[in-house]
Amino acid sequence: MLKITDGQCGKCTHFGEHHAADNGLVQIRVSGQAPEGYTDECGHPKLESLHLRVAANSGCDGYSPIAKAS
Ligand code: SF4
User: From ligand 1's centre to the CA of 70, what distance in Å?
Assistant: First the structure.
């Protein structure tokens, strides 16, 4: 398993943005860990049309932290 830290795709609101309720994705966000090789689509407006797939431990300057549940 990979440990996902703040600033990485697995903790970005754009990671798998179009299926944010997906169980596997929710698990990654809650646990802060992702299986080796796990990738998902980046929904950032500048990248969305390219259907860029990124690893959970990738990152970019478009990072936007997931809103914490209150
Ligand atoms: S590539 Fe950038 S914008 Fe897309 S999910 Fe990763 S950190 Fe977020």
Answer: 23
